[in-house]
Amino acid sequence: MCRSIKTLRPPYADSVTETDMRAAALQYVRKISGFRQPAPHNAEAFDKAVEAIAAATEELLGSLEVRGGAGKGAGAGAAR
After folding, report:
1. Sign of the four-CA dihedral 40, 46, 51, 57
2. Terminal-residue alpha carbon distance, the chain
3. DSSP character for 5?
4. Cα–Cα distance for residue pair 14/11, rounded to 1 Å
């Protein structure tokens, strides 16, 4: 769906920053909304969606267990 969103879990990413997670969330919201930049009257909803998806991404990465990898939560938020 969103080819510019990179995989953020080991072994594809050694460390993942909040910036990486927010960038992925932003690309997702842009894709599903159809807007690269929202109109002023939609900016709050757009920003709230980006923050919610970034938080969900952090939660997901923090709870994934990658078998044969570095272990639970590896890479998630490593460089905060």
Report:
1. negative
2. 28
3. S
4. 7
Can you give the pLDDT at residue 3?
A: 63
Alpha-helical (H) ranges within 1-80 are 18-33, 43-63
Which residue's structure tokens are 């970034």?
54
User: Considering only CA atoms, which of 11, 25, 14, 28 is closest in space to residue 59?
Assistant: 25
Query: Is there a contact between 25 and 19 (Cβ–Cβ < 8 Å)?
Result: no
d(CA 25, CA 52): 8
Q: If pLDDT is split at 50, 70 and 90, which confidence band does 2 have?
A: low
CB atoms within 10 A of CB 25: 21
- Domain ranges for the chain, please list them: 24-63
